[in-house]
Fold these 3 entries.
Entry 1:
Amino acid sequence: LAKTTQPISMDSYEGQEVNITCSHNNIATNDYITWYQQFPSQGPRFIIQGYKTKVTNEVASLFIPADRKSSTLSLPRVSLSDTAVYYCLVGVPGGSYIPTFGRGTSLIVHP
Amino acid sequence: NAGVTQTPKFQVLKTGQSMTLQCAQDMNHEYMSWYRQDPGMGLRLIHYSVGAGITDQGEVPNGYNVSRSTTEDFPLRLLSAAPSQTSVYFCASSYKAPGQGSSYEQYFGPGTRLTVT
């Protein structure tokens, strides 16, 4: 599985756009990139998944450059309720693949 | 749908005791897995199952057993509890993508907070 590197923590303020970048230099051709969000005392929740270019849903956008060695999760106009840990995962569905989680990025949104 | 349910929510054990953490899902998902999360850490995979009757070890399987007799249930057994097993345990499930393995969209339960003294 490709190793991922993310910042340990980030701070932001309400109303700002937050971009969290994940590095995955060894990503394989068939690997997908997936992001999860975890609030305190809860299990992680799937946010978004992509393979290349840009993916957008009602919660976030995911930007993936052409070389796919990194990806950026973009949260528009964050609020206090976006304070959470965000995990970047890389891998490919197939066989007995089960996602593995690193330490993630702890995002704190200030008033 | 209730989604993924876990019982109990909290549990305190003495060293050497055994117990079973329950996990059930009502989404007919084929894939189920158990993770543990220690303070300030990410989730580490303990065991997983790709279908009824099929289980395999994850990253940290020692001290834990699993079985999968039905699609719905995936209990985790602690054989002889140790203080190092103090953690929050999460169960998750996911469907099988057409022609592929596990979908990336895993559904997690609320967790069981276990303390071993």
Note: Chain B touches chain A at residues 4, 31, 33, 35, 40-45, 48, 50, 56, 58-59, 90, 92, 97, 100-111 (CB under 8 Å).
Entry 2:
Amino acid sequence: GAVVSQHPSRVICKSGTSVKIECRSLDFQATTMFWYRQFPKKSLMLMATSNEGSKATYEQGVEKDKFLINHASLTLSTLTVTSAHPEDSSFYICSARDQGARTEAFFGQGTRLTVV
Amino acid sequence: GENVEQHPSTLSVQEGDSAVIKCTYSDSASNYFPWYKQELGKGPQLIIDIRSNVGEKKDQRIAVTLNKTAKHFSLHITETQPEDSAVYFCAASMGGSYIPTFGRGTSLIVHP
């Protein structure tokens, strides 16, 4: 399958600072990328859908000013958690869908964010 | 919107036994059903998928069946091995938009 690289895999930051997470499609062009949040022993919660060159579509209840998403190219999307608080600590996962007619989306390795 | 139910939440088997995880979906328009395996601290990995025009698909020790009428689909793992231990998620989506709805996950534990 296609490869999606997510970086960093782990990050610890202080309350009030911002953290940027990158999601790259390594061997395909991704017109659409998805950002998920996963709590311990829980399923994936879709936060937002981003399309290259346009604004992200956020799910209900997700603060767009707190979780900034940029999808500037067909191979890169970034999620920035602004003014992080301890309750933002979580596992964040991106997935990317091939530009072609394929239906599958492939997931990154995930980023464990800890806000202290 | 779509609602996906997944059972059981935890499944414990002995090495060599078979494991079956079942999912139901609510929206008859859904036509793509992937299964993901997530190991601890990692992102989900697609292991098998099935489209609505097929009733069964097999890939070595894993197989997926789909009953469109009943709106349920299942994952079957035969000859389980300890390395099969992980959390498995089913999902359902419709059309080319691919915004999948995930089940709650099944924690599979294979005892050696």
Note: Residues 15 and 91 of chain A are 17 Å apart (CA to CA).
Entry 3:
Amino acid sequence: DGGITQSPKYLFRKEGQNVTLSCEQNLNHDAMYWYRQDPGQGLRLIYYSQIVNDFQKGDIAEGYSVSREKKESFPLTVTSAQKNPTAFYLCATGGTGGTGELFFGEGSRLTVL
Amino acid sequence: GENVEQHPSTLSVQEGDSAVIKCTYSDSASNYFPWYKQELGKGPQLIIDIRSNVGEKKDQRIAVTLNKTAKHFSLHITETQPEDSAVYFCAALNSNSGYALNFGKGTSLLVTP
């Protein structure tokens, strides 16, 4: 929200297919993050990037991949290796070093059929 | 790494009453503690935060208290209104070594008229 655009908002996928979730920001923030949200589980960190062309795994990176070719964009690919991909995915941005507020997008809900 | 625990998981109060949500953290070096509010189908939004050099912070009906010795912090909402109904998340960060917030599992607050 407020300069972060996630798309699509809803996505359905068949088992075995890869899917890419888009996250674009115009806040000029260096750091970008992907979190996964499941009922009763809070927000769990998948990947984060502090600067272009660099990113690090979070707590639950298995089955996911990311790229950071531009400052404005941080797409997340949910691969067929992710065993339980149905979830609500949230992209966030913030200042370098995580010393301040995180701004979240509106989220993308992925359902695997 | 940092572990943040949040209680209660659900909370129901009558309009006008106060609501208190509590969190504990494990890393004594954590120094930044934000609270986020998430409405249904949307991304979380920061409502208040506190840093380790402060014991309490207020913003109108919302306040946060921090006890560094006990490693816990709390969110207090006074004069609750139905629009306060949402899921609230606490988080913690050691900005000297960490780069992403660690979130609690959330509290679903319901304010009944």
Note: Residues 34 and 91 of chain A are 5 Å apart (CA to CA).
